[in-house]
Each structure stands twice: as structure tokens, then as C-alpha cells.
Design a protein that fits this description.
mainly alpha, 14 helices, 2 strands, 55% helix, HNH domain-containing protein, HNH_nuc
């Protein structure tokens, strides 16, 4: 049973595993080779000459039969494709659950915040992951995982498990320990205001922990130093509203995330009103 802290990481791990599973289970249509009759053979099938008019104007019955045949084939192909996708999804879910629940607790709850607060943890899962670390991570996996990978045709008998799952684990570690967008404003720009959701007006970024109180925040231990650059992209109206509902100290201590801000009743009412306003800046 996954805890609430583990569920987001499980979904991330499953996404990382899914790409590999789908790639390995991809069905490639077999190439068919036409048999050519031997040159000069008496049994060779001679081509039938068809008039140009017959090629351009098929009979009504032929056209109808061809259309029905194509429709049936398309439906069959769609059904087979859908079945393959469902099978791949079930395979991925089963394997992801088996593997993820066998990982160490620190790996199941790995996050950007966790590695920032624990230097040893950060060093342990620093990319690229060495072979010794991969083997240590995978050693607790039950034998059923290897059997399942083999039965699904994902893991050849001669393949090394750490080499096979290494890219998946590396993608997972990178995804969970990379700085969130709110910590790296220079790397992205939101497409809409994170309070009122309007996407047609200019945005500014709001320091969720106001810069004016950074020294006090660190002195009193409200947040870690690496958290000071957290930002939210807001329109000018919402930016002003946020600074109007609380002091810098209150914002830093209580309202230091978009999620917390949006939980406030006054912010929800403002967002509902502002979202309906269609003004534009000059």
C-alpha cells in the first residue's frame, strides 16, 4: 500500500518505465515477400490486361464491396491496437507496482527538497548512478520481477537487470530531484496567471518568500536557504492583491506556496472575480 507521500513518485516511476515497456512490446508488422514465378515456367501466372476505362471506373458492386472491406479492416485494426495499448498499460502498472514497492523508502519519497536537506542523500543519488548503486537499489527486488520481465519478453536471458532498468531509475531520480519550476523562474514562464488563470495579459513573478525578509526567514529557521527563490507567475492585479492580504512576514511564514494562497477564501473570491474581467494592458 502506497502512502500519500509516495503516490506522486509512483506515478513518475511508472511514466519512466512505460516508455521502455512500450518500446520493447511494440508490435512491428512482419514483412511479406511475394513469390515470383520462375522465368519461363509454364505454370507462371500471366498478367491480365485491364482496359484503362475499367481501371478508372470500377463497377458499383466492386466499389461497395471494397468500401465494406476497408471499413472492416480499419475497425479490426483499431480494436487490435486498442487491445495492445490496454495490455501494455496493464503490464506497465503491474511491473511498476512490483518494482516501486520493493525500492528503499528513501528512494520512494525522493524529492528536490529531500536532497537539498540531506547532503549524503544528494551524493548517493547523484547522476550518473554508478553500477554499485544500481545493484544496491535492485538487490531487494523479488525474483517474480525478473520472471515477469522474462515472460513478457522484456528481459533476454543473457541481459543484466541493472543495465536494463538503469535508464528507468536514472530518469526517475532526475525527475524527482530536479528543481521544481517554482524554484527556477528563469527556466520557464507560465502560460497563465497562477491565481486567476487569465492567459491573455502580461505576467510578473512574485517571490513567494519576499526578498525583504530573507534574512529574518533564515535567522528564525522558517525556511531553508535553497527555498528562498520560490516564485509564482501572477498578473499585475493578482500580484498586488497578494501583497495586500498579508505582510511580508506573514507571506513568508504562512502563504509561501501557490497552493496555500489558493486555499484562502478571499483569494478564491478574488480569482473568481478577476477571471471574468477582460481588461488588457496598454
Amino acid at each position: 500500500m502506497l502512502s500519500d507521500d509516495e503516490k506522486p513518485n509512483y506515478e513518475t516511476f511508472r511514466d519512466c518505465l512505460e516508455g521502455l515497456v512500450i518500446q520493447k512490446l511494440a508490435i512491428r508488422p512482419a514483412k511479406t515477400r511475394r513469390r515470383r514465378p520462375a522465368k519461363g515456367s509454364k505454370n507462371a501466372i500471366k498478367p491480365v490486361e485491364v482496359s484503362k476505362e475499367a481501371e478508372e471506373e470500377p463497377t458499383g458492386n466492386d466499389a461497395a464491396e471494397l468500401g465494406e472491406f476497408v471499413d472492416v479492416q480499419l475497425r479490426r485494426k483499431h480494436s487490435e491496437s486498442e487491445a495492445n495499448v490496454n495490455a501494455d498499460s496493464l503490464t506497465t502498472k503491474y511491473l511498476a507496482t512490483e518494482i516501486f514497492t520493493s525500492l528503499a523508502p528513501e528512494l520512494r519519497t525522493l524529492s528536490y527538497a529531500a536532497v537539498q536537506n540531506d547532503a549524503a542523500l544528494r551524493a548517493k543519488y547523484e547522476e550518473p548512478l554508478p553500477t554499485s548503486t544500481l545493484e544496491s537499489i535492485l538487490s531487494p527486488l523479488p525474483i517474480s520481477v525478473v520472471d515477469s520481465l522474462s515472460s513478457y519478453g522484456l528481459l533476454p536471458a543473457t541481459a543484466d537487470l541493472s543495465r536494463f532498468l538503469g535508464p528507468v531509475l536514472s530518469d526517475y531520480v532526475t525527475s524527482t530531484t530536479t528543481a521544481l519550476q517554482e524554484y527556477a523562474p528563469q527556466t520557464r514562464r507560465a502560460s497563465a496567471c497562477e491565481i486567476c488563470d487569465r492567459d491573455w495579459i502580461p505576467l510578473t513573478y512574485h517571490h513567494l518568500i519576499p526578498r525583504a525578509v530573507h534574512a529574518k526567514v533564515l535567522k528564525r529557521g522558517w525556511h531553508e536557504e535553497w527555498e528562498l527563490n520560490k516564485v509564482a507567475w501572477l498578473c499585475r492585479a493578482c500580484h498586488s492583491m497578494v501583497h495586500g492580504i498579508a505582510s511580508n512576514e506573514e507571506l513568508a511564514k504562512e502563504w509561501f506556496s501557490v497552493e496555500r494562497l489558493r486555499e484562502r477564501e478571499d483569494v478564491q473570491k478574488w480569482a473568481g472575480w478577476a477571471g471574468r474581467v477582460r481588461w488588457k494592458t496598454r
